[in-house]
Amino acid sequence: MARLIIMGGGVSGHTAASFARKWLGNEHEVVVVTPNSLWNWIPSNIWVGVGEMSKEEVVFPLAPVYEKAGIDFRQAKAVSINPEGKADSDNAFITIEYTGQGKEGQSEELTYDYLINATGPKLNFGATPGLSDGKGGLGEHTVSVCTADHAIHAALELDACVEKMKKGERQKFLIGTGHGMCTCQGAAFEYIFNIEHVLKDKGVRDMADITFITNESFLGDFGMGGIHFSMGGYATSSKVFAESLYAERGMDWIIGAHVNNVEAGKVTYESLDGTMDEQEFDFAMLIPPFAGAGLKAFAKDGSDITDTIFAPNGFMKVDAKYDAGAYENWKATDWPRTLQNPTYGNMFAVGIAFAPPHTISKPMSSPNGTPINPTPPRTGMPSAMMGKAVAQSIVDMMVNGATEPTHTASMSEMGAACVASAGKGLFTGTAAAMTVYPIVPDFETYPGVGRDMNGTTGELGLAAHWVKHILHHLFLWKAKLKPGWTLIPE
Amino acid sequence: MASEHVKHIEPYSPQFGTMMPLGFQKKMRTCVLWQIVRFIAINIRMTILILKSHH
Known about the structure:
The structure holds two protein chains of two kinds.
Chain A: E1 3-7, H1 11-23, E2 29-34, E3 38-40, H2 45-48, E4 59-61, H3 62-69, E5 72-82, E6 93-98, E7 107-111, E8 114-117, E9 122-123, H4 148-166, E10 171-177, H5 185-201, E11 208-213, E12 228-231, E13 234-237, H6 238-248, E14 252-254, E15 257-263, E16 266-271, E17 276-280, E18 283-287, E19 290-291, E20 296-297, H7 306-309, E21 347-349, H8 381-399, E22 416-421, E23 431-436, E24 457-461, H9 462-479
Parallel strand pairs in A: 1-2, 1-8, 2-5, 5-20, 8-21, 10-11, 10-18, 11-14
Antiparallel strand pairs in A: 3-4, 5-6, 6-7, 9-19, 12-13, 15-16, 16-17, 22-23, 23-24
Chain B: H1 23-29, H2 32-53
């Protein structure tokens, strides 16, 4: 009997656990360690954040799903990894600290044969003064849609603004990224369009000034260095596509901004040209930067080997080329394929938890030396694909005698479908449906714009909203492991 | 006239430098019949993308 432990139960971890459980015989154990009792379909938090969905529609309890599937569920956070075991044992193990199941605060050591790190991001609100509550959580000046509870709070704050506007009080909305090194611009992009749509529905749009603030050097960078869509017979830049959407809706934008301080009703930010400026707001949703989960690692003798296993930002090192050097030298092949840790072959990292070799967007900094550029997105479809590919490799290594990973999931060899909501409504809603292939541009295979123009498209319309809505139900169905879940693609 | 569908944009503002949809384009975005066609097209496109992405 062998044991596979998956640290993290988000999109990538849950996908890996579900498939590993399906493919492994009952003689093997699959254990999921996650501090949350609820699974959250995060893309739909956008709709919770504008009051169009309830929390109950985007979450479900994990315990009964895992019990039925035969997955050992530990509601706990992983604290450290001992990949070589300890003085009196060669068995690799992780140390966990329970956050639920009646064992809150208790620690336990869990041995493993294979380990998947799918811990996702730590929402690093503390990186920007005033964005956090001083304890690392969301601060009092802004809202967030990163969790379902954050989104509920955002919807309440939005309602309060709507009431003020109905009474004739003009309101300023500021949506975007709360630090120069953020990723997930797509979430902010969706949220600002949903806010605009809701304000229009409520008849108060003319009382709102809506501004997008982003660390992208141009609108539509999306952390992927921009995209060229096949559109109307042209390879059209996502800059034109995105700017058009904002301009059409009368929304302003601030680009290349590193928000360096947040206080009541005001942010200050540094721009790529080095200037400092301020932006006032009555309502602000600013995405925090992401960091690794903060796991420690120890060798057999107890010495700290965290630096061997993790990059300085806390993400786990995998088979990426971390010494690629300057932007001009970057290649698609820098990106990891098997997601296997180079030091310990029974350890993998998927989704946000793996350390990218570098950004996808061109690194930039202000004359003051402040880095201002998006970090690589690795959520949603790619993270689920990574989870599945790694589960396949591990199953082959555990039961089929493979000595090396048998499946790959490189972001430079996979595409992503992104459906960004721009307003909810069966006949009035719209969304931007974008497909990009590959995620990381490959200028050797696709000279010109770095991507396959047959697979890179974008369009706005009601159909994309239908797709978005159907995906909400399909992915929740799949995550609940209901009949036919394996037929639903990642 | 097509220009009736474009709100005033301040010349030389960032918004002035991008494309703006005109009436026909806007109408097609929520035209149910056309969007049913687009729905099928988007699904085919995404299915091909998924098939290409698994290794």
